[in-house]
Amino acid sequence: MRRFFFRSVFENYFAAEAFVPRDFTLGEDLIGLTDGVRIDDLEFRGEKILLDGDMVARLNGVDTPDLTTADFAIL
After folding, report:
1. Domain tally for the chain?
2. CA geometry: angle at 61 spanning 36 and 25, to 5°?
């Protein structure tokens, strides 16, 4: 199992710098949320995950609205 982490602080953040794991697999990998980020803070559109309107990750081949609470770890 691999873990990927999102934080709440994105200073001078651009979509081109969004996190793009090569092989995220639903049901196998976890997305860790730190610094007070909650699942409800995220927006899911297609392969994109947004925080405060900014794309913070793109999960290639994953329809992010299919993510469930089991795919996240609150740290």
Report:
1. 1
2. 60
